[in-house]
Amino acid sequence: MARRKLRLKDLRAVARLHRRGMSGPEIARRLGISLRAAYYRLEKAGVTRRRKTAARNRLSERELSRTARLYAQGLSLGKVGARLGMTREGVRYRLEEAGVRRRPRSWPRPRIGMAELKGVAELYATGICATEVARRMGMTAAMVLHRLHKHGVKVRPYSSKIWTPTERARSAAALYQSGLSGPQVAERLVMRRATVYKYLRRQNIPTRRRGGVAGARRRDRLRGGA
Q1: I want to staple 41 with a disulfide (CB 3.0 to 4.6 A). Which of 14, 84, 133, 180 is the partner?
Q2: Residue 161 domain-assigned?
Q3: pLDDT tens column, 199-217
Q4: Within-domain flag for 221
Q5: Quick one: 67 and 49 in the same domain?
Q6: Do the domain assignments include residue 84?
Q7: Rounded to an integer, what is the distance from CA 123 to the centroid of its chain?
Q8: Nearby residues of 34 by Cβ (< 8 Å), 6 or more positions away
Q9: Which of 36, 53, 70 is the last residue of a domain?
């Protein structure tokens, strides 16, 4: 099979990334190609591959200062690498080159604002679960539980026998009873299908056969025609 002819912009792209200090594997991940293809393009672009020990010596002061500045803001190695398009090892090398001391694993987390704690507590008090609060606030469920504990809010047990329909549960039931199917309700409310059917079961709403209202009407027409 004939090799695809490389375009000039492909060669310029690998050369530009190489000048930024990125290694062969990092260039391959950035461009979505194999490592062999990355080295082949570097060779066709006339770029001399540097040794592994010399990669850090070619980093510019601007790149080192930017890496150190992001790390000083409290970001982890993985998050700094995601910002700069490199691996954790590449970030670690740059920090060592810049003389930045690594933080210990027990580094204190940033303080949580009172407004954020109050917002999480108010949402949780409406009756929605911690997972739904996390989805609305853009955080994980563990972070929500941590903030509730900080705010002194007692977390409801997962196996509570008393369940009050939330706004989303009532919306799911109303859409399902209007004729929409379970998948359509899930798509409308941006939730899982299993969550829709769980809300329906908890409100004692019988589920329709596969095909819904449209399918029942279609079956009735077929029976009448027969």
Answers
A1: 14
A2: no
A3: 898 888 888 876 555 555 6
A4: no
A5: no
A6: yes
A7: 22
A8: 28
A9: 53
Residue 75 lies in a domain: yes
For residue 176, the enclosing domain spans: 167-212
Q: pLDDT tens digits for 70-114?
A: 888 877 787 788 777 777 777 888 888 788 888 776 555 556 677
Q: Provide the number of structural domains found in the chain.
A: 4
Tokens of 219: 């079956």
